[in-house]
Design goal:
Two copies of one chain form a homodimer. With 430 residues, the first copy, chain A, is α/β, with parallel strands linked by helices. Chain A folds into two domains: 10-50 and 315-429, Aspartate Aminotransferase, domain 1 (Alpha-Beta Complex); 67-308, Aspartate Aminotransferase, domain 2 (3-Layer(aba) Sandwich). Chain A has 14 helices and 13 strands. The first copy, chain A, has helices spanning 15-34, 48-52, 55-59, 83-93, 107-121, 146-154, 171-180, 203-211, 242-248, 278-291, 297-307, 310-339, 365-374, 406-429, and strands at 39-40, 100-102, 137-142, 158-165, 168-169, 184-189, 220-224, 255-260, 272-276, 345-347, 356-360, 377-378, 396-399. In chain A, strand 4 (158-165) and strand 5 (168-169) form a beta hairpin. In chain A, helix 8 (203-211) crosses helix 9 (242-248), helix 12 crosses helix 14 (406-429) and helix 13 packs across helix 14 (406-429). The two termini of chain A are 28 Å apart. At the A-B interface, helix 5, helix 6, helix 10 and helix 11 of A face helix 5, helix 6, helix 10 and helix 11 of B.
C-alpha cells in the first residue's frame, strides 16, 4: 500500500481554490464525456494476446491419450486426477502429490463444492453439518474476491469484515474473533497477490493463522492461491506454505488450498486443483465419488504435454508477465502522475496477480465509478470487493488492467483520475 | 423381458436327476475354474475400439476457438453453454435451446448438483429446502442405476423400491404412493434402454408420470436419458417427450432431463447437458452462477466441429452400434442356448443402452456372482442395481458387454450360465 506523501494536498486548499480547481476538472470531465468512449476496466480476464501464448494447447495434435500409468484418458475414471498432473500441482502447492486432488476447469467450483460439503455433511473434526447449525460465520479479509463472498451469502453464512493491511489480514482482530466465537467456521484467504490489493501475506501472518486458537474445532482456512505463479517481475513474492505451517502448529486439517491454470493456460479450459491434509483429501474424495466419475483427463494430458513440468509452467508465466507488466505499470504511473501528493487517493503497486486497488477519500468510490461510467469507462461496481457488496468506507475501487489493450488502459486511467479528483473536490466543497 | 417357455424345466426333474445334473455342472464349473481366467463383465465403459471412433476429437487440429456468436472459447464465460452446442442437445432432448444448460464432462455431476440444490435451497414451487424437512423420499424403479441410488443415500433421502416391468415402472404403485405421501419429492428414471434391463418406458407410462397427482407440490422426475441415442439397431425405441407431456398435463416444472456424450464421444471427456422448464432452468442457472464461471467451451467447440449437428451424432452412434450389437447378441444367444427353457432364468434382449439384465431364481444372484468371481468372471455385485444394494429377491445380475472383446464375452457368459444352472440346482436340492 503506497501512502502518498502530502505535497499539495487538496484538503489544504482554500474553498475558492477548490472551487476553481473543480471548474477546471468539470471542464476536463465534460470533454472526456463528449468523446463517447467505451472502455471496460472491470474484468479480471486474460487478454487474447495472453491466450495466444497457449495456442498449441488448442491447435497442435497432441501426443498419446494414455497416461504414464496406462490409464486411457478417453475413458471413465481418474476421480482425483492423473499422476502427472498431480505432480505439477504438487510442486505448485509444495505438497505431497497424494494430498492433491485435480478437478475440472474451475477452481471456483472446487471451492463452492467444498463449502457445500461442509454445509450438507460437515468436515473432519466437526460434529455436524454446518447446515444444521443456527449460525455459521466466516471471516472475510476485505477488500477481497466477490465470488468468495457470494458463496457465503448463497449458503447463508454470515460474513464478518476483516481489515486487510499490507501484510495481510489484521491478525489481532482475527485471533480475537476466532478464539471467542465457535460459530466462526472459516475464513477466505487469497494469500498471494490478493484480489484486489495485490499484497502477499507475510510469514508472520501465515504463522499466526496456522497457530491461532479457534473456538470451532472444525475451523477451515479456505486458501485460494489463485495467483500462486502470477508474478509480474522475475522475483516472486515469497509466501510461506500454509499446509506445513498448520501441520507444525498441530492444525493439519485447518487449511484447504486451491489453485488453477485458468490464468495460466486458458481461462475457460484450464485445470483446477486443491491440496489439503490427508483427512480432508480423503473426505473430499469420498464426496466426489458421489458427484462424478472423474474430471476431464484428456485436458490434463494436454496440459502436461504443453507445460511438461512445473518449471515449464513458470517459464510460461514469465511470458504472461511480459504482456501484463506494462499494463500494470501504466496504471500506477498514471495514478502517480495524476493523483500523487494530492492526498485524495492511495493505491497499490502489485508485483503480481490481476488487480490494482485504488482507495479514494471516504465516501467517494461510488461517485467515482458513476462518473467513470458516464464518461464511458466501466469500472467494477463500488462495494463489490466487500461482503454483501458494502464497502463501509465507500472508498475502494478495483482496477483490472489485463484485458484491454495498453492505449485503452491509459485513456481509461486518465479519465478515472479526473473522476477521482472531481469527486474529491465535490466532497471537500460539500 | 423374455419369459422362457418351460421345455425341460429343472423344477420338474426328480431329485436324482437333479443331483446327477448337479454333478455334471460341478465338474464343468471346476474345469472352468482350473483355467484361471480373468474376465471383467462389470463396467459399463466403452471399449477402446469405440473410443477410437472419435480419435479426430483428440488428434486433429481443430478449427477456430471462436464460437459462432464471437465468444472466445479460451476465455471465461458461457455459464450455460455455447449456442451451437445447445442446439445439438436441444435436438436430442427435443426441447427449445433456451431450456438447455450445457455442463462439463459429467451428467452425473449435473444430477448430483440438482439434488444438492434442492437439499440446500429447495426447488421452484417448493416452500423450503429439502434439507430442512424431517423426511424426504424418492421413488426408485429397480433394478436401476446404482449411482442414482448412491446420491439419495448420501443425502439422506429415503428410497422406496418401485417394480420395473417391461413398459417401465409399475404405475399403479407409483400413483398411489405419490398421491398420498407429501414426503415423496422425486423419482429417478432412466426412461430409455433402462440401466440395466434395457426396456423403454411406454407412452402410457410417460403420460401417467406426467399427469399423476402428487401430494408434494415440488415433486421432480429426474429423467436420466443417458441412452437417448444409444440404439443397437437402426430403429430406435420411441420414447415420448416427458417435457411436453408434463407441460400438457399442467406439470411443466416436474421433469428435469439429463444426457451426455460420455458414451458417444469420450467417456471421460464428453459434454453433459440438462433440459427442463424455463423456471427450473432459470433456477439452475442462478445457482450455477455461484459455482462456476462456466464449463469448458473449447471441448464444446471440439464436439461441435466433430459431430457438426445432431444427425451427425446419430450417424456416429450407428458406428458404435456396429461394434456393440454383436457383443449384446453374443450374450443373449448364449443365454438362450444354455439357459433357454430350463425355467431358471429370464433375461432381457435390449435394443439399446449398455446393459443386459439377468434374473435368476429367487435367492440365487449372490451365489451366481460369487461362483463367477471364483471362476475368474467378475460380475457386478449382486444387489448393486437396487436401493441400498439390497435386491429383495436376490435374483438380478447386471451384465455389461461393452468393454471386453467378443471372445472374452463369450467365454465369460458360458461360465456365467454354468454358474446360474449350478446355483439353481443347489437351490432346488436344498
Amino acid at each position: 500500500m503506497l501512502s502518498n506523501r502530502p505535497m499539495s494536498e487538496l484538503s489544504s486548499l482554500s474553498r475558492t481554490a477548490l472551487a476553481d480547481l473543480g471548474q477546471k476538472l468539470e471542464a476536463r470531465y465534460s470533454a472526456f464525456k463528449a468523446r463517447g468512449l467505451s472502455l471496460d476496466m472491470t474484468r479480471g480476464k486474460p487478454s487474447a494476446e495472453q491466450l495466444d501464448l497457449a495456442t498449441d494447447l488448442w491447435k497442435s495434435p497432441q501426443g498419446s491419450f494414455l497416461a504414464k500409468d496406462g490409464t486411457d484418458g478417453r475413458n471413465y475414471g481418474g476421480l482425483d486426477g492423473l499422476p502427472e498432473m498431480k505432480e505439477i500441482f504438487a510442486a505448485l502447492f509444495d505438497a505431497p502429490a497424494a494430498q492433491v486432488i485435480v478437478g475440472g476447469n474451475s477452481s471456483l467450483q472446487i471451492m463452492h463444492d467444498t463449502v457445500v460439503r461442509a454445509v450438507t455433511h460437515g468436515v473432519p473434526g466437526g460434529s455436524e453439518p454446518w447446515g444444521k447449525l443456527s449460525k455459521v460465520r466466516f471471516l472475510c479479509p476485505a477488500p477481497g474476491y466477490d465470488r468468495h463472498f457470494a458463496i457465503c451469502e448463497h449458503f447463508g453464512i454470515e460474513m464478518l469484515n476483516i481489515e486487510l493491511g499490507p501484510e495481510g489480514p489484521n491478525m489481532d482482530q482475527v485471533e480475537s474473533l476466532v478464539a471467542s466465537d465457535a460459530s466462526i467456521k472459516g475464513m477466505w484467504c487469497v494469500p498471494k497477490y490478493v484480489n484486489p490489493t495485490g499484497i502477499t501475506y507475510s510469514d508472520r501472518v501465515v504463522d499466526r493463522l496456522a497457530a491461532m486458537k479457534t473456538a470451532a474445532p472444525d475451523f477451515r482456512l479456505l486458501w485460494d492461491n489463485a495467483y500462486a505463479v502470477h508474478d509480474l517481475y522475475p522475483e516472486t513474492d515469497p509466501l510461506k506454505n500454509i499446509l506445513t505451517a498448520c501441520k507444525a502448529a498441530g492444525n493439519e486439517n485447518r487449511p484447504i488450498t486451491f489453485a488453477s491454470t485458468s490464468k495460466v493456460s486458458f481461462a475457460g479450459s484450464g485445470i483446477s486443483a486443491m491440496a489439503s491434509s490427508p483427512a480432508n483429501v480423503a473426505d473430499a474424495k469420498k464426496h466426489l465419488g458421489f458427484q462424478t466419475i472423474g474430471p476431464d483427463k484428456l485436458n490434463q494430458l494436454r496440459h502436461v504435454a504443453f507445460f511438461k513440468d512445473y518449471p515449464g509452467m513458470l517459464r510460461h508465466m514469465a511470458r504472461h508477465a511480459e504482456i501484463l507488466r506494462p499494463k500494470f505499470e501504466a496504471v500506477t504511473d498514471i495514478f502517480q502522475n495524476e493523483l500523487g501528493g494530492k492526498g485524495i487517493a492511495t493505491w497499490t503497486k502489485p508485483r503480481g496477480g490481476y488487480f490494482i486497488s485504488l482507495d479514494t477519500l471516504d465516501g467517494c468510490a461510488k461517485e467515482v465509478v458513476s462518473l467513470g461510467n458516464q464518461a464511458g469507462v466501466k469500472l467494477t461496481v463500488a462495494g463489490a470487493t466487500f461482503p454483501y457488496g458494502k464497502d463501509p468506507r465507500d472508498r475502494n475501487i478495483r482496477v483490472a488492467p489485463s484485458l484491454p489493450p495498453l492505449d485503452q488502459i491509459k485513456a481509461a486511467m486518465e479519465i478515472v483520475c479526473v473522476c477521482v479528483e472531481l469527486a474529491s473536490v465535490r466532497k471537500l466543497l460539500a
